[in-house]
Design brief:
The complex is a heterodimer of chains A (183) and B (654). In chain A, 34% of the residues lie in helices and 25% in strands. Chain A has 183 residues and is α/β, with parallel strands linked by helices. The chains are: A alpha/beta (183), B mainly beta (654). Chains A and B meet through helix 1, helix 2, helix 3, strand 8 and helix 6 of A and helix 2, helix 4, strand 16, strand 19 and strand 20 of B.
Chain lengths: 183, 654
Amino acid sequence: MGLLVVKAIRIALLGLLLFGATGFRLHGDPELRVSPGELQAAFILRLAHFVEWPPLPEEDPFVIILLGNSSTEAALRRQASGKSIGGHPIEVRRVDDVELVEDASLVFVGEDFRRWTDTITHLYEQRPVLTVGENQNFIRRGGVISLFFEEDHIRLAINQGASQRAGLSLDPQLLAVAAEVIP
Amino acid sequence: MAAFSRFTTLCFRRPIPRRVGAWCLMAAGGLVASLGAMAPRPSPETLGIENLGLEDLLDVRVESVSRKSESLFETAAAIGVLTDDEIRRTGAMVLPEVLRYAAGVQVSQHTSRGWAISIRGFNLDSTNKLEVLMDGRSAYSPLFSGVIWDGPDYLLADLDRIEVIRGPGATMWGANAVNGVINIYSKGSEETLGGRLETTVGAPESFVQSMRYGAQLAKHTYARVWAKYASEDRTWFENGEKSPYGDTEIARVGFRADHLPSDSTRFVMTGEYFTDKLGIQHYDYPTYEGGHLLLRWEQELANESSLNTQVYYDRYNRLYLGIFEEQRETADVSLRHRLRLAGRHDIVWGAGYRYSWDDTFQIAVPYLEPASEGFGVANFYLQDEFSWTDSFHLVLGAKQEYNSLVDRWEFQPSARAKWLTSPHTMFWAAVSRSVRTPARTDTDLRWITPNFAFYGTDDYRSEKAVSFELGHRFRVDDTFSAEISLFRNLYDDLATVESYPGNTYRYQNMQKGDAWGGEFTLEYHPVYWARFSLNYSYLDETFRLKPGSNADPDSSAAAIGNDARHLSTLGATLEFRHALELSGYLRYVDELPDPRVPAYLTLDLRLSWSPRPGFEMSLLGRNLLDDRHPEYRAASPYRNEISRSVQLQVTWAY
């Protein structure tokens, strides 16, 4: 029984190899795909244009805080370089503790800070800060926006109540493309 | 072809058959052909995603190479993963203890630092049908074909994940991965920056102190150094006395460095030195000492292809208490290339060579003849995953391996099919052949006394298995997932001890076996603050002697494995405010038949509090349901028992 199985597999493997050889092209199908970190960074910068913050003093930068280690950091630093939101140049800062950052406008909670989500959303609750998390449940824990992956696409979920408490105004276009909106 | 023959004769002391040469040439051809596709991945800058609008960004596809959970769902094998969070929640301080919580893994602790661990049967002190890889380094000893579990250890907090493959992994991972593969991955040094101090104190007597410091050394280079010290004295005999061999002390230091010049390139270097004293009352010097150095280059190429190459050197000195001493050095080099062809073939091929040499020293009666030996294992494998349609894939693969200890080639093929009926359900089936190659003890062991003589044999055959498997996975996003896998394994040439005239005994392969069973796992995450898991596995094994054998059937069957019929673990984790977390595991291990060990049910509970990142305190109670219970070995006043324990752990990271 074993020997027959072995022989069959040998023949099939040879066949597949030949089939593959006849079918190959020197340049494979260049279906371009993006790393999750890059896509998240691009999405964060894009959605920031659909949120209205209370006006910042003219000189101030738009501060994005990254909590914890994430693949989004490098991508965000690169993509945000030289760009502005609402006329304020973007400044990206990485923070490794759960402490209030007074001048933050957007706080991104990396997955390795998931355990302290409640503490973080509570800290920034009534402040004009857009809290963004990496998993779908982030909005159920007081966060404003969840950015998560479903199969191989990025998706958006919004907590409207949290955005209102923060004093932020969300463009209806953002709500329209969201996979989930909770009051 | 003639030059090739001469070259291989030089390496292996015999010419390689022509068909193998053909395999090698085809693979080389494949490699050359794919050179066109060997361009590195396009950089993010060239993609211009930052200029896309909202709707377009929602349409962008993320590469699956980085999506581990996605690729796990689509794997045509019974595979389970313990994530870093799950490892932390078990409260385990040493690797074998973490494996208790993995589905389908039987862990039987027999001494303070001794565990018998197996998957789908054949549990022995040194289970020989399970391959274990620690960051790409094999922990499997060629001396007796098995893993001694006090060996592989790490700072568990710096582990990324542990993958447990139940079933034959021979095609990818080589001979001896007959019933499973345990793959342990540590985190990249760029993920473990900063300092971390962890102190664990337990009752009965145990103490573990570990520390790690990671830093960025240069623009793209990161490294960490770590150290772990553990001391414990907490094993009891069945008669109530404390075991003098339970007093153990281990010390390890290690490092890992990563150089990431680009998004798609990684160089890794790891090293370690360890010195363990097991049974200090008797041995005041290290009974297990050694270290390793490993270098690896991982390169991602265009079109979801990749190239990995690795080299490592490993050495150790081990004193097998009172029996004999072994000094071993191993050098290993391997290559693995993944490429896509014609859009429908996902091909992985690889080659490797490992040379291991030892010096053994006789202390008591048994010894090895020859006392020193060196041998090489060369392997070549090829696997093709062919997309018949988008949702139906066929995977065909084979590994060809040569072992110079027994001068033998082993062919280990496997055929798998997977059918993704929807994004939430899939089915898979597999047929594979795998082999457990002879170890030094099988061929070279001698045990001569005035009353009897025992010999290993030169013509000891490889143990063989043909496995048939079926599996099904189902999930509802992050909330619920379930999987079931079934198997039927047919074994041949299993080890026996045959008697000959004049009170002589020899190792032979006169047993056949038939095992069937399966594993079921379920994960439920109904709300963000609660998660539940359930796993159950069943194993039914029968063995029979082949005609011509004069061994005793019952003891022959018992000698190759002592396995529980049922294993089950129910786990729950609840998260409260202020980063308070409660996790518990209820574990059932059915009785071991021969030597008989009673079934047991245990409860482990862990309460952890982490007011801010960088500080965690936890209290763990283990084996709470009874005072003490045995997990292995025949009943005797001196059988070791594992007792109820409590442990307090404090972690400080900065």
